[in-house]
């Protein structure tokens, strides 16, 4: 590692970095959609970037790149740049950062922000053994650090779409393209959603699961490239492009699943059995009475902030269903009271016996109760169809439709009625 910060090196690097930073500032400062702007000299493309929060709980990290990289340290507005071909350790001491080489030698202390910038083409960042495109920004966050991947949105999708759509065959390309457009639309619609924070998205199910380079896939990359810049709009507004694994035959109205207003393009539609190949098209969960009682007690105790005992379950009634056949209101009658649960939250109340850490696959189910000779509840069987909340595009349905010859734009128009695809860049 060269630890000197000679002025010549700084000036040389700052020239290159400045161009990239100016581009990012141009993008992030735009309140409108990045796109094409007509100028006297021709069209200028505003390339959209996304800032993805990768980690915010650890106090230090080991970070580098596949080849040489620059370490930009910002301290009270002063920029110092170092170069290395070996990983460095960035850690917090509360309100500031320090940077050490791989042997523990001090590089710089009392730093406000560290940027790790790979040098050369096809050189990826390596963060705790995981590879990412773009650059990494590290800032202090109380007793931890925030690690933020700043990446071109098309490259972000390369780490998002594979976990969402799974490994697919060539005859399913149109479904992958539909997924790419939906994921891109979600990302573009949520830029700057966390006001006051240095990131736009979280790399988890809170936003979209993002796993970097390790999950990149040939077919997915092809789908992303073929749909580059394409997003869904409804009356000049970004679509809330919700999607889920398996609808079980019917998707649902957003207002029926969550406590939200109706949205014209998020209404119940049939997929005519296109998702019937999914392993979750039909499922079953069996509880003994004590097992289900324990799940409901656990949920209510957590929700009310005090321990609650229900007594034995006497009956379970489906009181209301959604247009897509999911349960909108469920009542559980016990020895002490009748408890009512609503909409998608029912999945959290019931959970699973097959995996207690998971929620029920879907709220689209029937209930069968087995009783003893005295009428006491012995077991409860939930027979359901589908996986996920049921709003928006059914991913397994999209795959099934692509196998039947549907194109990605037809698939999107089916699940998001009345929307249109626009190419932004």
Provide an overview of this structure:
The chain has 425 residues and is α+β, with helices and mostly antiparallel strands. The protein has 3 domains: 7-155, no CATH class; 159-259 and 389-423, no CATH class; 283-384, no CATH class. It contains 10 helices and 26 strands. It has helices at 7-28, 153-158, 161-165, 173-189, 218-226, 254-257, 289-304, 346-350, 395-403, 408-415; strands at residues 36-39, 42-45, 49-55, 60-65, 69-75, 78-84, 88-92, 97-100, 106-111, 113-118, 125-127, 130-132, 135-141, 144-152, 201-202, 230-234, 237-238, 243-244, 283-288, 313-321, 327-334, 338-342, 365-371, 377-384, 393-394, 420-423. Strands 6-5-10-13-14-3-15 form a 7-stranded mixed beta sheet. A hairpin with a 5-residue loop joins strand 20 and strand 21. The radius of gyration is 25 Å and the shape is globular. It starts with 6 loop residues before the first helix and ends with a strand. Residues 1-45 have low confidence and may be disordered.
List its salient traits:
425 residues; alpha+beta; 7-stranded mixed beta sheet; 26 strands; 24% helix; disordered N terminus
Shape: globular
For the largest sheet, list the strands in their spatial order: 6-5-10-13-14-3-15
- Please report the number of helical segments: 10
Strand content bin:
25-35%
Q: Span between N and C termini?
A: 39 Å
Query: How many structural domains?
Result: 3
Average per-residue pLDDT, rounded, comes to: 89
* Gyration radius from CA atoms, angstroms: 25 Å
């Amino acid at each position: 590692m060269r630890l000197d910060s000679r002025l010549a090196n700084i000036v040389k690097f700052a020239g290159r970095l400045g161009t990239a930073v100016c581009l990012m500032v141009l993008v992030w400062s735009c309140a409108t959609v990045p796109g094409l702007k007509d100028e006297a000299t021709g069209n200028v493309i505003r390339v959209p970037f996304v800032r993805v929060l990768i980690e915010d709980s650890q106090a230090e990290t080991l970070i580098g790149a596949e080849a040489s990289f620059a370490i930009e340290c910002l301290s009270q507005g002063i920029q110092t740049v170092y170069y290395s071909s070996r990983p460095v350790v960035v850690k917090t001491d509360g309100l500031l950062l320090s940077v050490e080489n791989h042997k523990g030698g001090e590089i710089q202390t009392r730093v406000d922000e560290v940027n790790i910038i790979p040098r050369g083409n096809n050189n990826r960042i390596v963060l705790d053994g995981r590879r990412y495109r773009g650059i990494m920004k590290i800032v202090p966050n109380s007793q931890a650090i925030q690690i933020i991947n700043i990446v071109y949105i098309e490259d972000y999708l390369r780490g998002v779409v594979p976990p969402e759509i799974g490994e697919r065959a060539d005859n399913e390309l149109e479904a992958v393209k539909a997924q790419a457009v939906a994921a891109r639309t979600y990302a573009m619609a949520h830029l700057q959603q966390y006001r006051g924070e240095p990131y736009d998205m979280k790399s988890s199910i809170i936003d979209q699961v993002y796993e970097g380079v390790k999950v990149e896939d040939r077919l997915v990359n092809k789908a992303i490239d073929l749909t580059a810049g394409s997003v869904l709009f409804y009356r000049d507004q970004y679509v809330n492009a919700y999607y889920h694994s398996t609808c079980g035959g019917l998707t649902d109205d957003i207002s029926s699943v969550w406590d939200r207003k109706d949205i014209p393009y998020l209404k119940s539609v049939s997929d005519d059995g296109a998702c019937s190949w999914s392993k979750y098209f039909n499922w079953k969960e069996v509880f003994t009475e004590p097992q289900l009682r324990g799940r409901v007690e656990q949920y209510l105790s957590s929700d009310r902030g005090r321990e609650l005992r229900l007594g034995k379950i006497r009956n379970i009634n489906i009181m209301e269903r959604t247009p897509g056949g999911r349960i909108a209101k469920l009542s559980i009658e016990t020895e002490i009271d009748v408890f009512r649960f609503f909409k998608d939250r029912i999945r959290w109340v019931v959970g699973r016996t097959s995996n207690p850490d998971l929620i029920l696959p879907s709220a689209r189910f029937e209930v069968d109760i087995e009783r003893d000779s005295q009428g006491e509840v012995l077991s409860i069987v939930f027979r359901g169809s589908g996986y996920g909340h049921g709003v928006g595009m059914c991913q397994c349905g999209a795959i099934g439709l692509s196998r039947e010859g549907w194109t990605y734009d037809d698939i999107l128009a089916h699940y998001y009625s009345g929307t249109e695809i626009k190419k932004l860049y």
